């Protein structure tokens, strides 16, 4: 059987065919759930079919995964690192193809599709180094002949639930770290990007097989809310890493907490860029363009609020509207395109409804505001002038819609930045040290990502990624994020013959 | 007005009188809620009265605390450290008196009462050093002319809800760290230890006053569930540190999560000691005695399960029962007493009910098992032989009741240790390196505290204290516990004129 | 016998009399070497006499110290921390008196004398915290059933040789850390500040005695080069921490290296302040005044070179000369004095010779340049215009003499800063982020201390203090400086029964 | 022109021919110094020729290297990491060939030759991860509106002088770290292993070229003492990492110190294995065999002293002599060989002289002791019974000669271990926790490497490698060894308008 279009033939290089089983269970591909179609957001035509996991598939997979966990956690961390290194090498070989698939199925432009895969490769390299640095501590004991250790042990199984907008990078952040830390990984990708889920899994599976390791170390399911719920409830899964909306994330956390499991949440953002009167305007305009229009406004770090100093307000907007009008909209795989389609037909409808609601709250459209008639899910990049007090400004509309707000003092600008429920990313453009250091200090931005003279997005893997408040408080990728994937033991070993007590207590 | 008994006169040294306002609000003592009596558990007579906080008191206090937070977070951390140093010095001056009060009001024996206060003093010393070491990181950026920083900022206000069994040490763990990290502290002590709450607060208050700092930096309420609920719901409190039962802790977490706040939970333990066939039996017997009988079995780290190798089972029990019979029970303030009363009349009743339930599940009393007729809440230290499968073994009965279980292999012993919902503390007694390192490794104890040849209790402040699973996952005191009291910002500063993107992405 | 002057009577509070034994040996004060007089630099009159150590005294002291080392290194670090805490408390009690003695004997103004003692107190507080944080690491091993540890053990004995300009703070940096790390300390203070050496030692001695610890844990000698040489050669002293000139330091290093000992060197500085055209001039002028005139130019961090942007060159100089002329010169103990005497008559002569030499190299005196006729060692604060190529600019003249240089570009200014053999401290005054970050980056200052908008001096204890190149490369006080005072062991423990080799090697 | 023997043809795969220029200068291969022959130690026949560097070559190379340093240090560390990753990949492709060359030219058996190359590959992987973790610190400042940073900048150029016994792994330890830290590398390999020097350099050169980077980033010279001296004296080289004898190392250090450069020394070892009475004898025998005979006793970590508890002395020796007699001696490239030749004819002569000297000091040969007549440099593996007081026991004879000593108490055994000038590696075999922890504690082994139940050799790259006392004190490979390759700057940035001074000093 062939693909509907010849241009999809490259998918065979990724192990994909016109119809694909969507569960990687105990080292084998299966699938007994519903059949879904992967749809090209640029034209809403089918790319290929995937058979999702049923609950029976899930249980079979988790059974095997639990067994595999006992083996994997005993393999020395540097050896686990070597497996992750091989995954990185495999990704390097498929970088172009995988990047193309991301672009095709998710709808982001090709450089971003490739950039997303590159990020997993970077994570693999990073995790390899980390596999020799998951260091515990030896802490001085106050008691003679005692040694106090802080050791880090694997959790067991880490569940990873990812969203459509970064259909593989977020898996990469989690899986690279989880694996070197000695955990098995259970992945549920987004229901609308099943081909990427299958392709990524296939690549990992081949590495495991080549090394004679149980395939169940990496268990993967295409599926929807039912599988997500099963993961949240499953006591065999010690940590659930969830990426998605604040609302769903909160519900996942409730379910996981009820069974005393751990959660790592990456939820909604509502990110602002502040432009001070002394800013490098050219740099700031380019940054806002990338931050607000890139990935069609569907990054969690997309800039949704532009906070301009009154003295440069109008001239900045003039320039920004100018570049907005030059944005090339179209097929994300085509060279030169800056704005691809929204991911689904439903997203396009949400955009339309959102614009109506914005208008009803007094929003004034400065540019854009309409969907583009086509087979795909294209919409215009949009700038809206609105009061900071409008309720809609506190919400995340997942589309290239930017609210513009005006301020007079730095204090006011920071208060605006901090006034939304979410706390993911934030940027300021300025050339004054006192502003920079205030912005990153106790009275500055309350977000997890606090940038200066760069857009709200584009985090590097060496730092910890994540946000505060309704963004969920989790941190992924670099810094000491790995500690969340491990169990900390405070150990005191008495190797003497006496029993001195801490705090000098005398007992008996 | 005088105290009921002359021996309570020392309380005046701690700023206490026969009747005390129980809310420290905006630097002043107040109280418009119910009047409660503090009761001596050794005779169930009143010691003194305290006026609890009303919800109006609470709101007034929090208002002031919010204002104080803005000031406190801007004071350089080493200066905050100096305030904590002065608190430590003040505690040193009152060590004997405070320790005596802890013993009197809570019921633990005097050396433990003094040890508890000593632990706060140690925490102060530790936090002073820490105030110059709350280090952020400078992380190499992949982009030229960019600097990536991980900075740590204060959260704002930390709510601390403590339990009767450590009526002041747990406050110390939290407050010392929270304060140097730049947070104001809101404390609700246990309803049955209000005098300690008032005395500790008074001591902190005097230090703040002497330094002309707002008293509201440390806000304190005597009160019960209503105040606890108010803290859990209060969006002005970024972190709630709760110590108590798994059940209440889970409810607190649910409430705090709903408003996207942070929780630090120290919940129930169900701690086991494993004794291997090669153990130093004398050391182990003494350790079990301290672990199971100390603080009348009311420590969260109390040993509740004794897992004995079959080959030493009987001889170990014989020795243990021997020392149990010599335990001196009585007034905790009297020299030589090892076992004081349970904290309340209700605890004593719970003990009685518990013993009945244990019997109904097949438990066989080897020693103890009865309450002691007296005005106080005294009970016998109790050892029970029971099947590891009995449901009651999975629960925490807060009394000096020890279950004895038998094992054949190390694997079996570790499985028993890990078979309960709680995951706080655990110990093994052995002289074999292979057993020691297995015990602290991936297939060993699943608790937060993993000891070797010492009891389950007696953590030193340099390590992180806390446990896994139903124990809540929080970590307090040493190691990097301080990070939970701060907000992490990943900052990227572009100080050049170009806009390179991460992952080498090209946009526009 | 009484002191020559009544105003010296306060010295009795510090345990000093008109004649003092100068060796603290095995817990007793002794002295069988030459008798020296401590001289007041403000009037060159004797304050009191000290009997220096003979080589016999030295040997007796070291014998006892070696014995004490075996005991001290086994005391748990947190207990050692408690001793250092008590030293800090003792210093707090004597802060005013000790500060006064520093001012009297060394010649620095009283606020600086007290500040110096405060710095030791800060170090004590810091070291107490550190005593629970001298953490080793547990590193993941690539071999199953192996544990890799990095542990830190005491060195044994640390020799500390300090200079007259910080007669006690430098001891404090070294001793606080060395002691909590488990080392005994052998101290030789400067020959011209023996009273401070005796007073500081006495204070430490009292704490040791109160705790029933061997006095030899802290062994102290007044003496000169002979004792210094003995320390350098002594194989019982694992680390020699030396503060002084580059020339002597190099010789000490040679001697210590020949016996494969370790050195920690804090040698000459030749510190520059760069003032950019955009600088806050008022802030910069005040900073240069403190940096160049403070401690009469006898700090190792004294600013000796002022590098001014041509556009502000003249106006800056005008302002600076203005404030130089208002500097109050006189008795350092008198309120309002900013400039006390040089430390010795010889220093004053060096100043005179130095000025002559500067003139011979083309230096033009803009202000000052003369000694002040008096009984004391007073000289005028001096500013010199000179070519950056003059040889004398590369040298450290230990007096309040400031060279002024002119630059056009940042690159040129940084090259000037880096063009001297020494590499201790450096500052830039600017308000541009790109300048700040370039200055602290790979192509910026090559010094150990790299400041922005503050003077070259005034390091905080939390950071590491020290410099590069001819400054010797050592680092003292904060950060991970403590590691220099310990022996690092990389330990691999095999607790299994197999013998896997690293790097997968097969042997036999 | 062809190779002398057909079996050398594989060298072409490594870019080698029968005659090779030996200096890699400014990206080009040159050589105008003496022509030397690389000799096969198994038969003393020539393998190929290399033209060594002249001093003119050296100067030309260093000139280019200095220029390249300015570029390399500005490339972001993660990009530098990517270059090191590519070097690792290139090594992986040539692992078998390079391992074979190491075995051929150095004389170690093939599994060790391949293991040595694998170690560099591991180092590359590790360094790639490290390139995003060369973290500086942000330290809390005691002054408001001040930020204190500890930043790490490249040194510039690192000189690496390696020895014949690890002709490429030691380069790997140094170069991988030095390169990601932003330093150029100047390498002088051992004069007797020039082919490995050329082959390794060629491989690095190709990676640099492919990335359009200056070849001078990695500058390499074949040569002897003259080039070594030039490196030691060269002020352009900020750090000299030297591996070799204590005597030469001390001289290098003297030269480098005279110009205030930095040294990293890996000098002689004299490593002992202690076998306790409770040891796993089989494991210990196998370990001693590998430790004493592996690499023909030419590892710096070779076990040279075997310290046996009297109770197992004779039986242990019997077993050990038994396995010694079965050791297969012969061509290192042949399968099954355990003992290859000594590296040079001179080494063989040293062995003979050494044995004579040992005998003259009372040493009794238990097995071995003779050279083996052949064209190669083969000698017998030798065990000697000798008094621990014999002077020769304190020295390092670089051959498979093992001294056996007897002890009664642990204390005595540790004293023997610590009684030599060197302090590199040490092992104990025991099953008692109290012995293990004493051994790694303050009163245990004084070496840099302190093993338990494994041989003295076989360090993993995650830990720090190096030793104390006459071993030189340097640490390479893992842990925080990277700090030695960087310049530490303590930066304080004032971003406010005030000038508060540290330690609360008031000036003017």
Automatic annotation (TrEMBL), chains A, B, C, D:
GO terms for MF: aldehyde dehydrogenase (NAD+) activity
Start and end residues of each Aldehyde dehydrogenase domain: 36-489
Q: Its catalytic activity?
A: an aldehyde + NAD(+) + H2O = a carboxylate + NADH + 2 H(+)
What positions constitute the catalytic site? 266
> Which domain of life does the UniProt lineage start with?
Eukaryota
Q: Does the keyword Oxidoreductase apply?
A: yes
PROSITE patterns named among the record's database cross-references: ALDEHYDE_DEHYDR_GLU
Subunit structure and binding partners: Homotetramer.
PANTHER family listed in its UniProt record:
ALPHA-AMINOADIPIC SEMIALDEHYDE DEHYDROGENASE
What protein name is recorded for this chain?
A: aldehyde dehydrogenase (NAD(+))
Record the organism. Answer: Protea cynaroides
**Organism classification, top ranks?**
Eukaryota, Viridiplantae, Streptophyta, Embryophyta, Tracheophyta
């Amino acid at each position: 059987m062939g693909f509907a279009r010849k241009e999809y033939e490259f998918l065979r290089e990724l192990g994909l065919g016109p119809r694909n089983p969507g569960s990687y269970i105990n080292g084998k591909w299966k699938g007994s759930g519903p059949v879904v179609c992967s749809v090209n957001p640029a034209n809403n035509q089918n790319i290929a079919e995937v058979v999702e996991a049923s609950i029976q598939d899930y249980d079979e997979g988790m059974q095997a995964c639990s067994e595999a966990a006992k083996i994997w956690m005993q393999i020395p961390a540097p050896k686990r690192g070597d497996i992750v290194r091989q995954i990185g090498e495999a990704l390097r070989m498929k970088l172009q193809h995988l990047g193309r698939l991301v672009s095709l199925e998710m709808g982001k432009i090709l450089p971003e599709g490739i950039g997303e895969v590159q990020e997993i490769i970077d994570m693999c390299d990073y995790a390899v180094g980390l596999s020799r640095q998951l260091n515990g501590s030896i802490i001085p004991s106050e008691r003679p002949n005692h040694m106090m250790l802080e050791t880090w042990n694997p959790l067991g199984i880490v569940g990873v639930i990812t969203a459509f907008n970064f259909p593989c990078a977020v898996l990469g952040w989690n899986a690279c770290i989880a694996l070197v830390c000695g955990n098995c990984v259970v992945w549920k990708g987004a229901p609308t990007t099943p081909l990427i889920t299958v392709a990524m899994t296939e690549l990992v599976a081949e590495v495991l097989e080549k090394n004679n390791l149980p395939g169940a170390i990496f268990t993967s399911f295409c599926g929807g809310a039912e599988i997500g719920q099963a993961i949240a409830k499953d006591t065999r899964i010690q940590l659930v890493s969830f990426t998605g909306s604040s609302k769903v994330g909160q519900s996942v956390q409730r379910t996981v907490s009820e069974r005393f499991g751990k959660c790592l949440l990456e939820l909604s953002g509502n990110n602002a860029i502040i432009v001070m009167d002394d800013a490098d305007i050219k740099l700031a305009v380019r940054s806002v363009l990338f931050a607000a229009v890139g990935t069609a406004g569907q990054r969690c770090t997309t800039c949704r609020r532009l906070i301009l100093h009154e003295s440069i307000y109008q001239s900045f907007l003039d320039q920004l509207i100018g570049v907005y009008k030059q944005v090339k909209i179209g097929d994300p795989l085509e060279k030169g395109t800056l704005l691809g389609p929204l991911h689904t037909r439903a997203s396009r409808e949400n955009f339309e409804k959102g614009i109506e609601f914005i208008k009803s709250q007094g929003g004034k459209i400065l540019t854009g505001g309409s969907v583009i008639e086509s087979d795909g899910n294209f919409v215009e990049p949009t700038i809206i002038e609105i009061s900071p007090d409008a309720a809609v400004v506190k919400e995340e509309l997942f589309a290239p819609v930017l609210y513009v707000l005006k301020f007079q003092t730095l204090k006011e600008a920071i208060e605006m930045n901090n006034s939304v429920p979410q706390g993911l990313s934030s940027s300021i453009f300025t050339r004054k040290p006192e502003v920079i250091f205030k912005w990153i200090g106790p009275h500055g931005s309350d977000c997890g990502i606090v940038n200066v003279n760069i857009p709200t997005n584009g985090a590097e893997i060496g730092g910890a990624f994540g946000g505060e408040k309704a963004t969920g408080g989790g941190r992924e990728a670099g810094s000491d994020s790995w500690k969340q994937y491990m169990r900390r033991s405070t150990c005191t070993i008495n190797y003497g013959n006496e029993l001195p007590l801490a705090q000098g207590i005398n007992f008996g």
